[in-house]
Known about the structure:
- Chain A: The chain crosses the membrane at residues 23-43, 272-291.
- The structure holds two protein chains of two kinds.
- Chain A is α+β, with helices and mostly antiparallel strands.
- Chain A has a domain at 55-257.
- In chain A, 23% of the residues lie in helices and 37% in strands.
- In chain A, a hairpin with a 5-residue loop joins β7 (132-145) and β8.
- Chain B has five domains: 1-34; 40-87 and 265-439, no CATH class; 107-248, no CATH class; 448-644, no CATH class; 662-697, no CATH class.
- Chain B has 16 helices and 24 strands.
- Chain B has helices spanning 2-35, 39-54, 68-77, 94-104, 118-122, 177-182, 191-196, 200-203, 207-220, 245-248, 320-330, 338-342, 373-376, 464-469, 523-538, 675-696; strands spanning 275-278, 281-284, 286-289, 298-301, 308-315, 331-335, 352-354, 356-361, 368-370, 379-380, 384-399, 402-416, 421-431, 457-458, 483-485, 488-490, 505-512, 545-547, 560-562, 564-565, 574-578, 583-601, 611-628, 633-644.
- Chain B is extended, with a radius of gyration of 49 Å.
- The model of chain B is unreliable at 28-149 and 190-214 (pLDDT under 50).
- Classes of the chains: A alpha+beta, B alpha+beta.
Amino acid sequence: MGLYKLFSCNVEIQYKSCLLSKAMLFTLVTTLLTIILPFLIAYRSRGFWLRTHSYYEQPSVRFAYEYLLVAETNDPSQPIVCGEAAALNQEFVNGEENCVQIQAQEHDFNEDGKNDALELKFILKVPQEKTISSVLVILALDFQLKTTCPLHMQSLAFIRESFILPPTGLKHYGDIEFYQITDLPCVRNIIDIIYNNSLMSYSKRSSENIVEFIMTNYFQRQFTTLVKTLYSNGYSGHTGHLKIDLHLRIPEMEVKYTPNFLQELKWAWPQYLSLAFIFYWIFNRIKMFVFNHRLLMAWKVVPWKKH
Amino acid sequence: MRVITYLGFTLLSILIQFSVMDYIQDNLKLEEEQTDINVTSRKKRYDDMFKSIKQTPHALYYRTHLNKDSLKVSQSMKSYSNLSVPETEMSTMITNSIIDEFYYENISTTEDAFTTETLYSTTEIDNVTEITFYNKKNKTTLQPYVPKENLENKNCGCDLLYRVCDISCCCDNDCSEKDKKLFVNCNDISSHHVEESQYACFEAHGFEVSQREDEINLYDNLFCIVKNNVPSKINLNSKWPDFNAADKAYKWHKTDTSRNTEFERKPYVYGDTIWVLKEGSIWYIDMPSPTVNNYCSGRRPILFLKEENIECTVLLKDLEMFQIFRTSQESHCISVTEQSLNSSVLNCSTLHCTNWSIVICDEDGSKCNYYNKTVHEPSCNESYCVNIALQLEYIFYYYDSKITNVTIKLFVKNVANHIPFMTQVVNVRFIMANVSIDEIIRISGNPGYLYGLPVISSAAESNHTAQFFNNTYRQKRYLTQLDNIDGLCVSYNKTVNFVDFGINKRIKCRYIHSKTDWLKLNSTDACEDIENQIKQLSGLTEKIYVSALGNPADNKEKDWILITSNIQEKDVTYGQFLANNSRLRCNNFIVRISYVFTFADVSEVVTKREYKIIAVNTEVATHNVTISAEDVSTVLTIDTNFVDGTKPKEYEYAGGPHLNIYLPKDFFFPFPSDANCTNKLSVPLMTLCFTIYYQIK
């Protein structure tokens, strides 16, 4: 009947030396190298510290019932302007009767409390003598991220279409996207409300026009929302009315953020440890060779030999 | 080990249970598929089952694949719960829904409309396994359900026409069986979809749904839950809607026109509307402004001490200058003084009234005269309109707590008639002094230059700083360069095209040689003649100095930098006539003049910017140009470049701190610091110490 190896353990042979000795210096140097070299290699091979990280979340997007619609006509002095913006209230806007109807619907298909789509319909009355050449719609959105990096901001959705022929309808299908030029600071349980003020509710002070004012100020933000046009189709013919159907989906969005200290460590630690194991093994072999071959002076303490 | 073994066995038993159940389900489904040929056959089988079940009350049941197909109906049949339906319309699968009502939602149906027991015989029920849930089984009593006749199905979402069969609405009781056979949807309604939407009757068909089902089936065999008696979602407070939801939700906003333009009897403060007195009543003065596009479609009040620069597009008839002529004749600009605060009457005796003074200036503002209607009135002929002001400037002089003077400068020019729209520029400026705006000198930074402000220059031979601040000579204070007006080059000293600090730009314009006698010269002389004209036009022949700092007040002579040029190093221009003297070819001809300003941030403080010009060079670039005799012209390019010569900041790590540690004088008392004493005392002391040390050792 054969025997099987069930368990094994090592016998420890100790090498001892005094404080000021070559062996001590050698041991110190190799120990330091075992600690430092993995770090240096991990760091120099890039990506040791996590600069940015991202996650996906479907934000809570609601229509804030503030909007601005500018339909440019062949007479630039008389565009059709519809809207709810504080800046607009300062101006005398003529022809508001041309804004026949606006419908706003929010859809939550999966009933998770977050809107999955926004649907807006505008019906404009186009006077017979006017021809609409382009349409700009600015919608104010209430945008909230709620999970990892809480954020609450008032963002905008810009949709612009130009028409070669006099239009009678426009169908626009697009997705709302979260666009950021810097990472979210991402402090847990603290909602970032730096941009939680609507540009629509600012009263204009400068001499530029409202659209330019909104664009200039929105451009300065570091986190914004964009409308990515997927499909868009215009219907031509001057029928006296222009119907604009906007369908905006709210998909999951990538959110980039600066990782916190623990996450940095969590990322760096496996990199360091995996290299440290290799170096530990290598230096152990070197030490074993040096002390076994008596290249450095040290007392060998063998457990079964009594001194 | 025991625990692990126990767990292992438990896991095994669960696995066996699931696999066996799966097998049973498959068998059942197979059976059902085989036997369920028509409605009656199914009816019989359900009837049998129901009989066996009737003996024991059922709190919960396992729903099986057997009723998968009937689920779609069960949902719709729930709607019959307290309604009467003609007995003939009653589906044979109604019991499913009854069980749903009874056990799935765990409610008593005593009050439901089960009026007779007869339905039991005609209804069927699927394979039901009893499980007691919350010990409530005894509370539920099964009551027969008999729908009343001729009543609407109120839970049928697609039943929208009153007592008329709705097309493709399978649960509409107004539709006969015959009608329903016409509706293709009624046969293939997905049970999943029925649960999701009340409009399922319309939507439960199509590619998307069937595909989704397939996907689900793919994973159904793997860890699937075949039977589930727990509702997937439990709605906790469906009966109590949020009555405050309206306060939390976004709604259509009320329109708030917050325009405060009522006259208040108080002295002007920043941001106040400027008032005018017109025929005894008080109005505010406004100016055109763009609203949503670049057209001057809106008007906004001129606000006190708020400087404006408005640029908008306008039609000729809507130009602001016509408005100004009317306003200036009819009204006076008023200021509330202390005297008028106490007076009740508002007129020019109590208020401080100021007349408008309208000044007509050239396009570049060099020549200005008071408006004279006979001379300056705008007029149009077929091709041109003359005296049209596209740029105008309101200048309010505020001094001694009142507006002392209002000047409106109209910069007039001739405008071609055929251009429909024109760009109108309206500037509003306030001067808090009692001197004319022409006497006020603007510097371009203090002390260093600021971005966008004009570079200060001087054409004087010496005493540049004194000349700059001297108002008696109306010399140009800022560096100008060739400009393009209507495509043509305009001489540098006739333009207001300032060289603005820090702004790199390129201007192109066409130079047209006005002299006609050049043909008499030989070709090289002709080329040189044209080139000299260009040099004069662009100021290359003059010695121009540039102030190193934006505020030249403290400039010494060396701070006025001479603009150097490489024109002397340029290759010699020579020409030749081509094609029978009809064309002139000039070699090494100046076509491009480039100004290169080198500046640097000379401030000591890191955060402060103090830009100083350290060198200005003019480089000319030459090219071989062919000029036609009929059109002696060439295109010139004028470039301006500002190059930042500031060295990038280099950081050095600070050295270690210098520790000034002073010990008390008597700290080393036995060892006096005096050098003479050291020699005397330290030697024996040291000897003593060493002796003691070795003795001890």
